[in-house]
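stuck on this chain:
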Amino acid sequence: MNNAIKKTYLGSLTKVVE
């Protein structure tokens, strides 16, 4: 998995949780 994509994916999950 691309590091940039992974960062965006995790960032999206964090936004959803918040």
